[in-house]
């Protein structure tokens, strides 16, 4: 009297799933390699102005981004005037020097002279705050500055 009975022949052969883990790991590896993580979450409205003579930055050199614009709808509690965003927080003009110092400290020593500061300024932001940021950058000797723009006709801004 056996407890288990052997199945009799007559059913379909089971599907071979031996290669399924290989396929899953291959897909997982592909998405891990192909996915780019977002560096900053924009807390400001950032409609970039258009320009027709633009040039791409060299990817070899490090770039630090400073965002300037009005707070977006989710951050209305910070007011409606143009604000500066450094990484993921609002900042004052006086904090720009510390931000550049931290960015330089995070770089290898041979890359520090090539640090470019890219200003992503909303097209509706006033130039007073942009001038203040540029003065702070001059004080800390961050002289490689560029403006990020969209591609298009400059007369349509």
Automatic annotation (TrEMBL):
Keyword vocabulary terms for this entry: Cell membrane, Membrane, Protein transport, Transmembrane, Transmembrane helix, Transport
Protein biosynthesis recorded as keyword: no
Principal location listed in the UniProt entry: membrane
Keyword Cell membrane appears in the UniProt entry: yes
Compartments it resides in: Cell membrane
Membrane topology: Single-pass membrane protein; Single-pass type II membrane protein
InterPro entries named in the record: ExbD
Superkingdom classification of source: Bacteria
Stretches that traverse the bilayer: 20-37
Protein family: Belongs to the ExbD/TolR family.
Protein name, entry field: Biopolymer transporter ExbD
Organism in which the protein naturally occurs: Thalassobellus suaedae
